[in-house]
Q: What sequence folds into this?
């Protein structure tokens, strides 16, 4: 434990499960005071009770009024916000034209709209204080695109553009004590893929998969010691390098591999809108069952091929 976060007030969106829940626990262990935001009220209150002095605020980040209420609640209780982490995110996966348009727009409203809303209220407060750290959780798919993730890629490319633009504004005005950080993980073993809208016709099979704890630690570290961008894990670093060095080749290989893994090898599964429009009860922990499911499917496939 360091002393850098002791007494600091930090807002975490998407805190009811997955990375957000893990980050909240890790920040509390560092002595931070937490404001927890998500749609699932009962899970937020359970986490707040677990952490002690934490404020749960039911929030749909896709609604700017909810995000403004979140900021008011944080300031009303604690008087200041030292860091704001935009972590909430959703996905609709499948062939672009086979996903309902409403689902695509919900992805944009949550991932990009929610990040814009959170960044807006946070930056207004940080500029009044002339200090603060904004952490936007993007994704490697905001740097290295993949098929079947059209609106998700669009949202995360937007998050990366927002971060770069805000950093330029801060430099232009000499506001060096306000930091804007982007964290770029690859697919992570959380409940994210249990919650995702799936129109592929198959069980979701992302690759490679990163441990949730690794992403949690990267976010906590960037709050303690801010950096402009943090790419999580060796596969993500390799993907970013390949995309920069040979984009056409990289995208061609990604296209073929993703189609093979997702559309040819994956078991059949029904279409679902996931948690896009209504929160789901499944998936309440930090880590998920993704790796275990993939391993089980591989065993079945291996047995059937013998």
A:
């Amino acid at each position: 434990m360091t002393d850098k976060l002791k007494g600091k007030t930090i807002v975490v969106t998407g805190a009811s499960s997955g990375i957000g829940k893990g980050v909240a626990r890790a920040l509390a262990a560092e002595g931070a005071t937490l404001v927890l935001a998500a749609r699932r009220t009962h899970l937020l209150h359970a986490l707040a009770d677990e952490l002690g002095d934490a404020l749960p605020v039911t929030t749909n980040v896709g609604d700017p009024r909810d995000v403004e209420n979140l900021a008011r609640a944080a300031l009303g209780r604690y008087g200041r916000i030292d860091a704001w982490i935009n972590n909430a995110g959703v996905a609709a996966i499948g062939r672009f034209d086979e996903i309902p348009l409403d689902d695509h727009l919900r992805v944009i409203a949550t991932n990009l709209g929610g990040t814009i809303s959170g960044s807006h209220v946070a930056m207004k407060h940080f500029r009044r204080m002339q200090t603060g750290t904004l952490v936007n959780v993007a994704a490697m798919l905001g740097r290295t695109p993949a098929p079947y993730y059209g609106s998700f890629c669009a949202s995360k490319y937007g998050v990366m553009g927002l971060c770069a633009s805000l950093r330029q504004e801060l430099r232009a005005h000499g506001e060096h004590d306000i930091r804007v950080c982007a964290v770029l993980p690859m697919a992570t073993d959380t409940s994210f893929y249990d919650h995702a809208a799936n129109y592929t016709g198959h069980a979701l099979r992302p690759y490679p998969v990163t441990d949730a704890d690794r992403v949690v630690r990267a976010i906590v570290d960037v709050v303690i010691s801010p950096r402009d961008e943090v790419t999580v894990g060796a596969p993500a670093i390799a993907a970013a390098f390949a995309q920069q060095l040979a984009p056409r080749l990289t995208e061609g290989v990604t296209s073929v591999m993703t189609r093979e893994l997702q559309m040819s090898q994956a078991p059949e599964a029904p279409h679902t809108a996931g948690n896009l429009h209504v929160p789901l009860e499944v998936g309440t922990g930090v880590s998920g069952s993704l790796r275990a499911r993939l391993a089980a499917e591989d065993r079945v496939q291996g047995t059937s091929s013998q």
